Structures are given as C-alpha cells and as structure tokens.
TrEMBL record:
SUPFAM superfamilies, alphabetized: MurCD N-terminal domain, MurD-like peptide ligases, catalytic domain, MurD-like peptide ligases, peptide-binding domain
GO molecular function: ligase activity
Catalytic reaction(s) noted: UDP-N-acetyl-alpha-D-muramate + L-alanine + ATP = UDP-N-acetyl-alpha-D-muramoyl-L-alanine + ADP + phosphate + H(+)
Species classification: Bacteria, Bacillati, Actinomycetota, Actinomycetes, Micrococcales
Gene: murC
Enzyme class, broadest EC rank: ligase
Functional description taken from the UniProt entry: Cell wall formation.
Binding site for ATP: 124-130
Annotated family: Belongs to the MurCDEF family.
HAMAP family: MurC (MF_00046)
Organism of derivation: Microbacterium nanhaiense
Name of the protein: UDP-N-acetylmuramate--L-alanine ligase
Amino acid sequence: MIAPDLTVPIPDEIRAVHFIGIGGSGISGLARMFLDAGIPVSGSDRAESQNTRDLAALGARVFIGHDDANLDAVEGLDTVVYTGAIWPENPEFLAAKERGLAVLHRSQALKYLIDSRRLVSVAGAHGKTTSTGMIVSALAELGADPSFVNGGVIQQYGVSSRAGRDDLFVIEADESDGTFLIYETSIALITNVDADHLDHYGSHEAFDDAFVTFADAAREAVVISSDDPGARRVAARLAHPNVVSFGLAEGADVRLVEEAGSAWLVRGDERAPLELSVPGQHNRINAAGAVAVLVALGHDFVSATRAVASFGGTVRRFELHGSRRGVRVYDDYAHHPTEVAAALAAARSVVGTGRIIALHQPHTYSRTKLMADDFARVLEEYADHSVVLDVYGAREDPIPGVTGELVEKGFSDPRNVSYVPDWQAAAERAAEVANDGDFIITLGCGNVYQIIPQVLDALQPE
C-alpha cells in the first residue's frame, strides 16, 4: 500500500493524465470526469473490466498490465494519478517520479476537478455511497444539475460520476487515509464515526480527531448522525456554529419516525411521509441525512423528502442479480460488521417467511484479524446460514493464520456456518442450503460478486 503524499503540489493546469488502476470503482469515475473536461486520459489495470471497456469507448487509452511504457501513450503527459491500492514497486509509479511528472493521489485529482465549486462532502465508515446517491438523485428531481463523484454506480445515471452544469459538486469523501481533510467543503455530512481503518489512524482517538477537523472546517453546515455513538462523541466536540443532527433520536433536527409500517421525517413542526424503493431502516436513516443536506442547501423540507424517494439504489448495494427455483440472489458491498448487520436486516425486512443465506468474503487480513468475532456474531444473528470464503487481501500481504476460518470459529453454533474456501464448492453449498423463498446474499467489497454466476448455475434444477 502507498500512503498518499499530499505535499505534492497540484498543478494549476493538467494537460494530459494517466491513471494507475483505471478500472477501480472510484478512480474510473475520476477518469470519466477528466474525459468530460476534454483532458486526454490514459490508464492501466491488472485486468479488463466493464469499467476499462467503458472508458476505452469514451476515448481513453487503456492498457491491461502495468508497464512504464504505458506512460508514453498520450502526448504531453504531465500528471499521473494513483491510489493507495497499488504497490510502491509499481513500474508506472516509479517511472512517473523519475520523469519528474506530477504524481497525485486520487484525492488530489478530485480536488483539481472540484476547483472552487460549492462542495457537499459525505463521510463516514459506511453509508457514504448510498447517501451520496440519494443527495444527487434528489437534487436532479428538484431541478438541479450537480457534478458528482460517488464510490458506486447510481442506478438512475448508470455511472459513478458525472459533470453537471451547476456550481454544486457532491462527493463521497474517503476518510480511510485521511484525504477527506484536503477538500474545501461547504456542507459536511457525517453518516457515522464507526471506527475502521485503524491501520492508518492508529487509535480510536485519532479517528475521532480527524472527523472533528473535517466537520469544523465546513464553510456552511455540518450534518451529523444523532444515533451513532462515534458521531455523538464528535458532535460534542464541535465548535461549528451550524450543526444539524439527523436520525431516530428524540432530539434530532431531522428525525425519522416509524409507526404502523410507515415512515415519516419530522423537522420542527413539519412532517413529511418517507417512501423509498430501497429497503431497510439504515436506508431510511440515510435518507434523513440526505434531506438535512438538501435543506441546508436551501431546498424546502417537504419537497426534499419527496425528492429523495426518487433514489433507485446503487450498484452492489442489495442488488438483485437473478432468481432460480424460487431463490433470489443478491449482492451487497458490506465489508464491516455494522454494514453487514444493516444489509442483512434490510433483507430480513423483505424476505417474508424465507430464510437468508449469507455468502461472506472477509476483506483484508488486518480487518479479519481484528473483527473476525464481530463478523461471526453479526452473521449468526442476522443470517440463517453463512458460507464463509477466504480473505480478499486487496492491498495487504497475508498474515499467517488469518483466513476465513477465523470467522467460522467465532460462531457459537457450528451448524450455522460453513467455511468453504473453494468457490465452486461454496456456491454449491449455498445452493444446497437454500429453499424456495430464500435469499442468498454475497457480502464483501472484494471480488465476491464474481461468484454469483456459479451460485445461479448451482441453483439450476437438475
């Protein structure tokens, strides 16, 4: 993993740019934005994907495999953009430094695009992508045309980023490496401060400190959860003059009220029905935060609540991929115990009398080592059976003894879990357990979604 070097100055003008890892979910959106701005783009990735094919169709020069010769693809190249997911020995990264090019972390490239526009930054250990999508979709419904860069594809747009005509820019701001602090944010939305990424911060206190700095720097308003314990800790320390809370708590400025199967948002004396197409209480809470942001931007509360209902979801957030013999197969990006609990609770709210079979891929060795028991507890509580794959290491080297078996061992009843590192066997196990009316849900932010065709095949009737 490469730590971002934010001391590198951002050029006043970028004439041509190369992206290392151009197919990634976040960086592909950045590349699209540079193409929209008329700036020549090249890039490389380890493997071809839909993102690389889409970017090539838009005019980017895309290479499969990393090679320093790829830097010669675009005439006048002056900037190379990287993410923390690449290795320090990456030949393009090293060659860019040797050639004296501007070597920018992706957060700096995003800051270049934002320039001086009015910025909404959405931060939090989870809920960022959905909340960003809700804000963007609602703004469009209200007649605005913002630019945005999200961590996932917004269903209405079919893309994760887009250049709009308005002065407004909405981003998913990444707290994982501290880079969310570099933006000049107007309105900061904090979905939660659930400790994660302690490999970067080192302590829970440092994690909280970063969110306090992020919030107090917002020019106009801070919108923050009233329910999350970490968010409450941060809110208590803020010196900002305009802090707006949202959630289920009695004193929340924008409060979610659920009664008799219906949901409402309440703000002072105003009350508006909340009707969403995406299930789960966590999504209704995200909607409350999005509405609070829209009100901070100057929109009417009731109209904003109505507009949020236009949100159709994001790719890899409780996304239905198919159905075989009465079993529906979903995928969700959840990779933290709190996210897994929320995703499975949402599934429980719509599965009816059916059961939930979780197909869980632990993400990174450090998180698995730290949170294996938490994952086990959540999976056992919210799923009827769990099939656990091996760890998706992402940017990390393996840690001896850290495998998916750690999660399996955390279950109190071994009958509720199967540790199956072989993907074909795992797909077959999930299909074997599932009955008519059940859901199978893949969980993780690695490549677990790629097992879905195998699961659907395994569900085929004999």
